[in-house]
Amino acid sequence: MTQMTVAERQRNKRLLADEAVKLAMQNRWQEAEEKNRDILHATPDDVEARNRLGKALSELGRYREAYDEYSVTLQSDPANVIAQKQVKRLQLLAEQGQSDVPNEARRKLDPKLLVEETGKTGVFPLPNKASQGILARLAAGDELFLQVEGATVHIVDDRGDVLGELPSKDGSRLVKLMAGGNRYVAGVMSVGDRELRILVRELYQDSTLVGKVSFPTRSTGQSSVHAHLRAGLERRDIDEDDMAIDDADDDAGEGEEEVEEVPNDLDDMDGDSGSRDN
After folding, report:
1. Domain locations along the chain
2. Is the pLDDT reported for residue 2 higher than 90?
């Protein structure tokens, strides 16, 4: 049987990596795990595939296995930023007593819902009101929920933990619009040690509220989890948990907090990407 040339092997590796990234973008984590294991079987030193496998295992609630995979990455590439942050996060989960939850259903939003749209979406940085252990569970793309209390809108996770609240002006506006029949969905854009960044999207506008804009001052373009994940497809590496939605987050200067981000949870690439700030 004719052996594949180096170019053919590289092309095959690239195709498999693209498939693995697409599975992650679709939140098909079991299949993503299997695809990345196939890649690693052929190329055990593939750091990007190792990080993607760690991400898939983390999303499946298999934290100890995820920790082991990221640790392998650090053995061969100690400067790998993705693996460094994930090992730190998984250690924190262990310290907080959060063991493996392999049957836990992670509630993820369709990445299309996290695309910013003028008037329909609002992006909010929430001061950290949750414990580090709670934040360590979160990843870009996770679904969040709006909980109304008077004129205040609290943001809670799928376990009911309060993560913060919307600014009073935005919150009181949404309370009135929801009372009028509008419906909204929320999700994680990025998460770091000191700040959680979320997106709230108008899903449905009641006929009585036509002409009433949900987020009149928000018009920040099309940066999104989905856009970041697409970039991951081109760069060959993905770790939604470490994604920063905006390029500005990726290029943050020294001393600034590195912000997670997609899933894409979802990542970075091109050979030396693992050592680049994500």
Report:
1. 6-95
2. no
Q: Which architecture does CATH list for 6-95?
A: Alpha Horseshoe (1.25)
- The 3-state DSSP composition of the chain as helix, strand, coil percent (nearest 5) reads 45, 20, 40
Residue type, 216: P
Residue type, 110: D
Q: Specify whether the CB–CB gap between 190 and 247 falls below 8 A.
A: no
| 189 phi and psi angles, rounded to 5 deg | -90, -45
Alpha helices in 99-200 (DSSP H): 132-137, 168-179
Q: In terms of Cα–Cα distance, which of 263, 236, 225, 190 is closest to 113?
A: 225
pLDDT at 194: 67
Residue 24 scores a pLDDT above 70: yes
Helix/strand/coil for 214: coil
Q: In terms of pTM, does the model score above 0.90?
A: no
CA dist 59 → 186, 238, 268 (Å): 19, 13, 18
- Reference 238, options 204, 255, 261, 216; nearest CA is 261
* Dihedral over Cα of 60, 28, 203, 230: its sign: positive
Asked if residue 51 lies in contact with residue 239, where contact means CB atoms within 8 angstroms, the answer is yes
